[in-house]
């Protein structure tokens, strides 16, 4: 019988030989899978596995002349990204509720439409890796400084710093920005700790979080899988018969199993940094919220607590629910003026002049859910989301809309058919979405579907087809309309339709996506 030391030497030698003889170096994840198996079988210890990984990194570096040279601590490195070409149409209607009979330029009139068509592109390029001793990191570069968009519009650059003052084909707005920069640790079983500008660690939907937003701060995640054998299998199934009439014993039936994934996600995001915390001289004051008061000089944080589970039945039927509570502490020096949201009785310019970004009086519970199954081997799922702001009464009062605290709910429900994996795959998603005026944080909601505005409801549909496993085309259409006509459609509109109230809204995109 081989001793552990002999076995370790054999493992290192065989893996190193594979690295040196193969047309391409052995991938770190393949070697890692083998080492994990040896540890699981208790043939080697965790420490011995780490030593082997270190040796493999050295061997790989020595045999990769003319290629990337990885530093010794690196055990895995992945380069990834995507390019998207997009055509986008956006249009919005407002009905003038003010006294302006003959509106001037830039001021909405009765049944007035604003529209814009754009050709756009986006580039995202990322690098993520794992290190020895259970550390990991990631960085992603992307176009556009807008946290809710990585798109660049063709021909839109009018920067005075560009040659010719913008166009033709100026590059003043074709910048590269840091979209993600994070590091973390996975050394404790089932736990992941992350800090930095990270991918959203919470399970959520675009009703509450724009998928382009990468929050900044800390996150702690726990996940554990439980498997339950409920019987119903075992033994031999009834024999079958071949064409020749001979009995063929069927394999033993699989037992009936349930898999339960329990998870908990916690986050402490730095929403707004106060600068400075201790200013020279007297602190600034503001009267925007009523009587004169000091401007806050402490940071604003968004705290999130999420606990949920996913129950998977045989044949990949599953149910998932992931409630999360959001709490805001502090106001920073940017979001200290109370949210007002606009009034339907004001003209276009006056209504948008009010504060649309305040984070006062927000204590939001969100409950995303989904159920998945296969029908005729076709993946399907029903997805939904529900949110309620427990402090909507105070938010309505602060906005000058006392009595409208009932406008505290947001909900989404949809159906997805298909799945995108291989060439020829397709997927269609269709959903309905509704968001009351005082239900959600207007700074986080998606700016595509319904223009990052509240007090709107509507439907959206997206159809995607895989030309290859890495290239697809997608068509998206959304139509929204004004919900409560006693309130404006306050929010942070970042598209071409900067109007309040928005009575009708249309969003159309045609995308070509290339992933690598």
Structure description:
By secondary structure, the chain is mainly β. The protein has a single domain (73-158, 181-515), classed as Porin. It contains five helices and 23 strands. The chain has helices at residues 4-21, 28-40, 46-62, 348-353, 392-398, and strands at residues 74-94, 112-131, 135-143, 151-153, 176-185, 191-197, 216-229, 240-241, 247-248, 257-272, 285-286, 293-294, 300-313, 317-321, 324-329, 363-366, 369-375, 378-389, 409-418, 426-435, 456-466, 471-482, 504-515. It has a 19-stranded antiparallel β-sheet that branches. Strands 8-9 form a two-stranded antiparallel sheet. Helix 1 (4-21) packs parallel to helix 3 (46-62) and helix 2 runs antiparallel to helix 3. The longest helix has 18 residues, at 4-21. It is globular and about 75 Å long.
């Amino acid at each position: 019988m081989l001793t552990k030391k002999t076995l370790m030497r054999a493992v290192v030698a065989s893996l190193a030989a594979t690295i040196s003889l193969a047309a391409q170096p052995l991938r770190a994840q393949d070697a890692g899978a083998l080492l994990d198996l040896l540890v699981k079988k208790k043939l080697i210890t965790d420490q011995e596995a780490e030593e082997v990984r270190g040796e493999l990194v050295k061997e790989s570096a020595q045999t990769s002349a003319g290629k990337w040279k990885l530093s010794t601590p690196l055990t895995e490195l992945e380069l990834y990204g995507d390019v998207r070409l997009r055509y986008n149409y956006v249009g919005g209607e407002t009905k003038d509720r003010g006294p302006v009979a003959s509106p001037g330029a830039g001021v909405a009139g009765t049944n007035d439409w604003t529209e814009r068509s754009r050709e756009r592109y986006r580039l995202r390029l990322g690098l993520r890796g794992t290190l020895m001793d259970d550390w990991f990191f990631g960085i992603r570069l992307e176009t556009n400084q807008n946290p809710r968009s990585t798109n660049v519009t063709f021909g839109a650059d009018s920067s005075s710093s560009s040659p010719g003052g913008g166009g033709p084909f100026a590059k003043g707005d074709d910048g590269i920005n840091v979209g993600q920069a994070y590091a973390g640790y996975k050394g404790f079983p089932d736990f992941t700790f992350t800090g930095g500008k990270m991918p959203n660690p919470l399970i959520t939907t675009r009703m509450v979080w724009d998928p382009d937003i990468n929050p900044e701060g800390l996150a702690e995640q726990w996940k554990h899988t439980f498997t339950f054998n409920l019987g119903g299998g075992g033994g031999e199934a009834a024999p079958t018969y071949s064409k020749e009439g001979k009995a063929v014993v069927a394999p033993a039936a699989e037992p009936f199993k349930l898999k339960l994934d329990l998870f908990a996600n916690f986050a402490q995001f730095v929403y707004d940094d106060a600068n400075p915390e201790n200013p020279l001289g007297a602190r600034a004051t503001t009267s925007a919220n009523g009587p004169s008061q000091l401007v806050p000089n402490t940071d604003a944080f968004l705290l999130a607590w999420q606990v949920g589970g996913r129950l998977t039945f045989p044949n990949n039927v599953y149910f998932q629910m992931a409630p999360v509570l959001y709490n805001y502490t502090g106001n920073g020096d940017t979001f200290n003026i109370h949210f007002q949201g606009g009034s339907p009785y004001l003209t276009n310019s006056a209504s948008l002049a009010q504060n649309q970004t305040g984070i006062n009086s927000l204590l939001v519970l969100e409950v995303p859910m989904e159920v998945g199954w296969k029908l005729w081997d076709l993946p399907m799922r029903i997805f939904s989301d529900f949110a309620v702001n427990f402090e909507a009464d105070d938010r309505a009062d602060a906005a000058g809309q006392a009595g409208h605290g009932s406008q505290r709910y947001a909900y989404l429900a949809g159906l997805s058919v298909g799945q995108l994996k291989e060439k020829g795959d397709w997927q269609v998603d269709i959903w309905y979405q509704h968001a009351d005026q005082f239900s959600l944080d207007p700074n986080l909601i998606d700016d595509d579907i319904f223009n990052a505005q509240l007090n709107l409801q509507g439907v959206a549909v997206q159809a995607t087809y895989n030309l290859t496993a890495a290239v697809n085309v997608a068509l998206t259409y959304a139509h929204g309309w004004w919900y409560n006509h006693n309130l404006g459609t306050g929010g942070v509109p970042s598209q071409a339709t900067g109007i309040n109230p928005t009575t009708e809204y249309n969003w159309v995109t045609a995308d070509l996506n290339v992933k690598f």
